[in-house]
Amino acid sequence: MNRERSIREMAEEREYEVLSPYAAHAGDSKGREREEPQCDIRTVYQRDRDRILHSKSFRRLAHKTQVFIAPMGDHYRTRLTHTLEVSQLSRTIAKALRLNDDLCDAIALGHDLGHTPFGHTGERVLNEICPLGFAHFRQSIRVVEVLEKNGEGLNLTWEVRDGILNHRTSGHPSTLEGQIVRFCDKIAYINHDIDDAERAGILSEEDIPKKYREILGGSTRDRLNTLIHDVIYSSLDRADIRMSPEIEKAMMELRKFMFDHVYLNSVAKTEEGKVGRMITMLYQYYEKHVDEMPQEYIDLIKKKGQPEPRVVCDYISGMTDQYSISKFQELFVPQSWQKK
Questions:
Q1: pLDDT value of residue 1
Q2: Looking at residues 35-45, what average pLDDT do you find?
Q3: Is there a contact between 121 and 274 (Cβ–Cβ < 8 Å)?
Q4: What average pLDDT does range 325-337 have in this prediction?
Q5: Distance between CA atoms of 301 and 118, rounded to whole angstroms?
Q6: What is the DSSP string of 40-83?
Q7: 157 phi/psi in degrees, rounded to 5
Q8: pLDDT value at position 267?
Q9: SS3 category, 32
Q10: Would you give the distance in Å from CA 8 to the centre of its chain?
Q11: Which of 25, 158, 196, 211 is most buried, by the most CB atoms less than 10 A from its CB?
């Protein structure tokens, strides 16, 4: 069907008419590493969002730890539900500021694709034992550039990759949409981790210092409302995303409180030592037996010249919690003898 303008082109024109001059307009994207024909319906950021959503790495987030290792309950967050909460918060802020919520969505959905099984415990162990080091934000970029689609990568736009790489606290995203996701990552995990800690009986609302409850609110709902409103009203008609000094200070102090009382809590982290030993043994095994990894990882070494330690990290970091336990049992736990 021949049309003077495609649906995508009309969507791009609407962005120029409606979005803030500070927004990252899809029509101005720096593009992809490999050029490809444009979609006639979706903008480049919408296509990136869809590519991430349909990736294997994204689906595996449903079975990766957020904070609590193998929790006995259906309502604790996983890495996937955290990702969806970051996406929702970032889109809310982007719409209020007339920024590009499609770009926010893509960055948010992709920001944790490189996370290991068992959360930051797995990340710390791989960083300690791999001579090339390991960090989940760099691994997320490696996932979308190298590992997905059997080594082809997703060929995402520069803006999405920049946002994924710089979502950490010390990052400096180049777009305002990336800055939104960077804030929303912290806003989401601080608040939903409080909710999960209360569910686990590790924390009660009264345990949170009164000064933070007075400034931010006395419930998850109130805190989210305070933080989201503060980001929006502090960033209106500005060329950067910010929070008011008082609210940001309270949020970061509450984050420190969470590290001291939840993230490093001996009850919440009872199984961490076992996780560390398991990840270490898996790494050491596959380092010596690279040919026992799936073929796509073997090809990265033999056909693309990727360093063996990095590819072993690729395989292990891509595992879900249960898959890593299953491989450990298969390799190291004696099985009952059965007559054949």
A1: 44
A2: 97
A3: no
A4: 91
A5: 26
A6: SSS-HHHHHHHHHHTSHHHHHGGGSBSSSSS-SSSSS-BHHHHH
A7: -70, 160
A8: 63
A9: strand
A10: 28
A11: 196
